[in-house]
Structure prediction request, 71 residues.
Amino acid sequence: MPYFWNMAKRLHRINEVLKEKGKSGYWLAQETEITYNSINRYVNNKVEPSLTNLFRIAAALKVDPKELINS
Prediction:
C-alpha cells in the first residue's frame, strides 16, 4: 500500500458510532437494506457512502447525520 494512503483523512465515523451503539455491520445492513458488502466497505473506510446512504445509516443509528461526518 502506498504511504500516502495512510495519510488520507477518514471522512466519516460510521465504525466509531456502531461501536458506541453496540451494533454490528450486519445489523446495520439489515436495518438500512444496504448490502453487507457496502456497509463493510463504509465501516473500513474503503469507500464513502452516498448522501442517501449516509442519511439511511444515521436514521438506523438514531443519530444526526452530522455525527457521522468528521470535520
Summary: The CA atoms of residues 48 and 59 lie 17 Å apart. The chain has four helices and no strands. Residues 1-7 have pLDDT under 50 and may be disordered.
